[in-house]
Amino acid sequence: MNSPTSGSLTSLSLAEARDALRKRDVTSVELTEAHLDAIAEARVLNAYVLETPDKALAMAKASDAKLAKGEGGPLEGLPLGIKDMFATEGVRTTACAKILENFVPVYESTVTSHLWRDGAVMLGKLNNDEFAMGSSNETSRFGPVISPWRRSGSTAAIVPGGSSGGSAAAVSAGLCLGATGTDTGGSIRQPAAFAGIVGIKPTYGRCSRWGVVAFASSLDQAGPFARTVRDSAILLRSMAGHDPKDTTCVDRPVPDYEVAVGRSVKGMKIGIPKEYRVAGMPDEIEALWRRGAEWLKAAGAEIVEVSLPHTKYALPAYYIVAPAEASSNLARYDGVRFGVRVPGNDITEMYEKTRAAGFGPEVRRRIMIGTYVLSAGYYDAYYLRAQQVRTLIKKDFEDCFDAGVHAILTPATPSSAFGIGEKSSGDPVEMYLNDIFTVTVNMAGLPGIAVPGGLDAQGLPLGLQLIGRPFDEETLFSLASVIEQDAGRLTPARWW
Ligand code: GLN
Q1: Which residue among 27, 67, 317, 494 is least crowded, i.e. fewest CB within 10 A of its CB?
Q2: How far apart are CA 23 and CA 166, in angstroms?
């Protein structure tokens, strides 16, 4: 690349930027400056809640010194954005919650430390729903993220999805080469689908949860956002890996996921679950799903209908298990050890005032539901029952995989992105329904990837989801790259 302009630097894929850095066609400082400029020009999107330009440039300089000597890790010099759920040492980490507004961790999350170990550069912290509870990024204490996408012919603000809305908007708008996300019920895959990019939630246990602000510990997983399947494979390889500090994190070698990109899918059996054909789903989603299956078939895969009979119970069971675990995890925000404190006449009043002032309405709702379903009189009726349903959901998938299915293809979301305010003012269940295709995957602990499938009639992105066998992320990357080749990359028209 001769005298690259900053616009072209921010539209490179992560793999292209990596190769350009290694050839010394561009420096990490140039790449980082181009992204910092892009971030400054896109503040209207509200994707970043904290920019760390000094840190970014210092890291970029250190990377350039290594690259000049022909050294450096797999991500050397590549600028990334970090969801504000990941603790970053010395850098404010709030989970976009008021109660953590003054929290500066003295430690680094394992996932982000893996990224820095491999040479990545941190541009800043990205917006998300408060404590990652939401599907539109409207519950953040920093305000909503505006999607870089708009309906054709309209200037109405659209949600980027949630909870990782900042990550999705930043990657899609060229404000970083890739980003981290967390996914408890769909928070990587749903925003990736809404923003026309790639997002993977790996198998539960593939990435360490240590240093990630806990929402629902048996469901939470970290994963990457990127503009291409290859880029997401490169990022996941760095993020994943054993960590003795998280006992649910597996000790199993991390494959070179990039090798799986473009690998033949001939002979693979792809399941189409009939229960995912939900009432009221737009025809366009149906058509997208059919197209996805045809692309995989044309690449040599076999398409079979499968049944996941307990799917209809997944959403209600999730909205018992997730709040139950959240109510327990969020008990630590008591105004004593860290975060915000509102004084009271005695300790009980201090707790009450702190928690009333520190948590937003959605988080309060989850804590109340969680406390209720765990209470002595209702534990068996709700929590225990939900755990039993969870086992059945997992078994549905196991039966499918035992019958020789390699992966399952579904739409990622039941619709394209909606407008800001459209679903956040009334019944919360309307918002919860967004996760209908993604929560099952967390309940079963399986890997799931969202990959762009095309645009709807309004010009907004639609995504497909592939669900894989435990620890078989490689198959997902191979299949997703087939879809990517047919659907192409989706880039929003710049208006900001
Ligand atoms: N939207 C879902 C919820 O609100 C999932 C969130 C997530 O995956 N963090 O719980």
Answers
A1: 494
A2: 31
186 Cβ below 6 A of ligand 1: yes
On whether the CB atoms of residues 488 and 277 are closer than 8 A, the answer is: no
For residue 44, the tally of other CB atoms under 10 A from its CB is 11
Q: Which region, left, alpha or beta, applies to residue 73 given φ > 0 means left and ψ of -120 to 50 means alpha?
A: beta
Tell me what pLDDT residue 281 has.
Answer: 87
- Among the listed residues 163, 164, 208, 232, the single catalytic one is 163
In the reported structure, the alpha carbon of residue 215 is separated from the centroid of ligand 1 by a whole-number distance in angstroms of 9
Q: Is 170 in the pocket of ligand 1 (CB under 6 A)?
A: no
**Which tokens belong to 246?**
């998280």
With a CB cutoff of 8 Å and minimum separation 6, the contacts of 336 are none
- Extract the tokens encoding 461: 């992105």
* Active site annotation includes 113: no
Q: How far is CA 25 from the centre of its chain?
A: 31
Q: What is the mean pLDDT of each run of 10 residues along the chain (496 residues)?
A: 65 98 97 98 98 98 98 98 98 98 96 98 98 98 98 97 98 98 98 98 98 98 98 98 98 98 98 92 94 98 98 96 98 91 96 96 97 94 96 98 98 96 86 92 98 97 98 98 97 97
307 is catalytic: no
163 is catalytic: yes
Residue from 379, 363, 362, 380 nearest 329 by CA: 363
